[in-house]
Design goal:
Strand order of the largest sheet: 5-6-1-7-8
Structural class: alpha+beta
CATH class of one domain: Alpha Beta
Largest sheet: 5 strands, mixed
Mean pLDDT: 91
Order of helices and strands: EHEEHHEHEEHEHEHHHHHEHEEHEEHHH
CATH topology of one domain: Dna Ligase, domain 1
CATH superfamily of one domain: DNA polymerase, Y-family, little finger domain
Number of strands: 13
Number of helices: 16
DNA sequence: TCTGGGGTCCTAGGACCC
DNA sequence: TCTGGGGTCCTAGGACCC
């Protein structure tokens, strides 16, 4: 049976949501109507564009470029800081409205959802549902969305990306040649800036060119990725709307330092702070990790990462930090200037599943109890209050994820 | 000029075992 | 002396997404 899929994409999400919040706070200006961007903090060396208004776009400003570049293109650009608490609030408002249409919703990112409407059309058409959602979000929530209407996720996502903002587009199978094959390959989902020049060298310039390229040629050159892009170019996507909440496969925290650091003790202190955040989130998910990974970026943007399997799965701050410290010392070249340091845990498993098969010794139990007590205090009093001795000032510098 | 942070998935080479 | 493969696990790095 043919599936009925919608993709809902918030237009300039961070900027629109900031605009709505500002208007609610009594602001006289709507930053969606002027050249404006949501940007990081240049003084913290995270000065990139996170979202832009249509007027900012007219100046040629692009998402992810530096604020410096944005200012060069438009000296009068208005810059507003990001605020993820607000974004979460509006993201949830959108989700709750969409729940009135189907409970089969996949939250693809903070500002994108897939809806499986297959058994929820009620004598209406998919296109009408899409139009209704578009209208209701605008009227009831105050921001606009694009809606893609199709028979699978890939085509719905491509459709919602056509012309913006505040539009509803269909991309049914018979529309693929006219609406999708005419587009440059860079527009196809999962074709990034490294793949585009390789395809250009093969004289593949449009999605249509890609669709007509022999499948086995692409597999030979790109492996699995080659098969996937051939299928996408032909509008083939069998993946389901994953509406059940998914457990994370890994959890990480990283920070760009306000200044480069070449002192290993300092790096270790920051690594401990990162470990505490990561293990806190890990325990909140009721999961244990099997792999610890440390990432470093040098002043000249050279990235290295080392990872190591643990003897047994754990969420203990002490155990994970011990391994992380070992990795850091193993990979850090004395004297090199470090710009970014990151910690992630991978190969996560459910805590309960592990407990059945595990005997715990007293030493670990004591450490677990300590970690859990700290977690409870963090819940109660906030994140920055409970810190280990000697790194109070560090916590101020690190943005914590809740 | 100055270049975030959080993810997922894939590949390739080496180690090790049968 | 000179010669195997196949399978799995581990690790580093890369590509892509928002």
């Amino acid at each position: 049976m043919e599936r009925q899929i919608l993709h809902v994409d918030v237009n300039n999400a961070f900027l629109s949501w900031t605009a709505v919040e500002m208007l609610k706070e009594g602001s006289k200006i709507d930053i969606r109507q002027i050249p404006a961007i949501i940007g990081g903090d240049e003084s913290k060396r995270s000065g990139i564009v996170l979202a832009k208004s249509p007027k900012a776009k007219e100046f040629g400003i692009k998402t992810a470029e530096t604020i410096y570049q944005a200012k060069m293109k438009c000296p009068n650009i208005q810059i507003y800081p990001s605020n993820f608490t607000i974004y979460k609030k509006y993201s949830n408002q959108l989700y709750n409205l969409l729940l009135e249409y189907t409970d089969k919703i996949e939250r693809f990112s903070i500002d994108e959802c897939f809806l499986d409407m297959t058994h929820y059309l009620m004598n209406d058409t998919l296109l009408n549902k899409g139009k209704e959602i578009n209208k209701r979000v605008k009227e009831e929530l105050g921001f606009t969305v694009n809606v893609g209407v199709a028979h699978n996720k890939l085509l719905a996502k491509m459709a919602s990306d056509f012309t913006k903002p505040d539009r509803v587009h269909t991309l049914f199978e018979d529309e693929i040649p006219t609406k999708m094959w005419t587009l440059p390959i860079s527009e196809l989902f999962m074709i990034g800036k490294k793949t585009v020049p390789k395809l250009y060298n093969m004289q593949i310039k449009t999605i249509g060119d890609l669709a007509k390229t022999p499948q086995n040629l692409l597999i030979k050159k790109f492996g699995k990725h080659g098969l996937m892009m051939w299928e996408y170019a032909n509008g083939i996507d069998k993946s389901e709307v994953e509406y059940k909440p998914q457990k994370p496969k890994g959890i990480g925290n990283s920070i760009t330092l306000s200044q480069n650091i070449s002192n290993i003790e300092k790096l270790e202190e920051i690594l401990l702070a990162l470990t505490e955040q990561v293990t806190y989130r890990l325990r909140k998910e009721k999961m244990l990790a099997n792999v610890v990974n440390v990432q470093l970026r040098t002043h000249d943007f050279k990235d290295t990462s080392h990872q190591k399997k643990l003897a047994s799965s754990t969420s203990s701050t002490k155990e994970i930090y011990a391994k992380a410290k070992e990795l850091l010392n193993q990979m850090y070249i004395r004297g090199s200037q470090i710009r970014l340091i990151g910690l992630r845990v991978d190969n996560l498993v459910d805590e309960e599943q592990m407990q059945i098969s595990l005997f715990t010794d007293n030493k670990n139990e004591k450490q677990e109890k300590l970690d859990k007590t700290i977690d409870k205090l963090k819940e109660k009093y906030g994140y920055n209050l409970i810190t280990r001795a000697g790194k109070m000032e560090l916590d101020d510098k690190i943005k914590f994820k809740k």
